[in-house]
What does this fold into?
Amino acid sequence: MTARIRLAAALSVIAVVALAAGCASGPSSDSPTSSSMPSAAPSSATDVGDDDGLGDDMDGTILDDGRAFAVLTWGSSSCVPTVADATGDGQTVVVALTDGDDADRVCTADYAARASVGTLPEGVDPTQDITLQVTYGDVTDDVDLDGDASFSGVPGSPTEYTPSAGWIDDGMLVLLTWGSSSCPPVVESLEGSGSAGTATFTTDDSQVCTMDMAPRATLLSFPDVSVEDDAFTLTLVGGGLDGTVAVRG
It folds into this structure.
């Protein structure tokens, strides 16, 4: 892993998906939503077709107690790729990322880490190592995921809608939560040292939220010299997300 995002960037994270207090919830959303973390301020907009939105490296992690995964790419923070398909063959999962079919969509000309979330296919064993063969536009990359014997979720089984998190890059983790897809979280502050950290989200009781129940990914980045990957516990405060999460990976 080579990309390193400092704490200042994390405090300006644009989370496309997160739970806000007072949001109504309802039936499950069909497709996972994703998040981005800008590493530079947005400037002019460019056509999505002019840039494949991919930086030098992809990375990934397993989420939702072994039921889901996230893929890290780099590009415009306003155009997060989605997982169009994921098919399994043993412990190899072929993943197709797409920018969608909206020809009129424009992308800001910043450069950001983006998390795209998908579900692992039935038959894949999350307690064993997994290889994602990811295709995004003209680029294909293999992403190796470490299995975890403590995973109790089975790919293809219903989620329990509990928050989960996994390390996805040096000092960077992806947090998966569930709730209205139209109420993005705002990271108010992020602190971490050793094997513990705290993410504080703003709370806006005046928000009106769609009544869906969607998976929402939020990228959080610590200075990599300040935190330890092993046995790391993340405390969530505010935004209707209060609780603790053991970060895997």
Summary: Residues 7-248 form one domain.
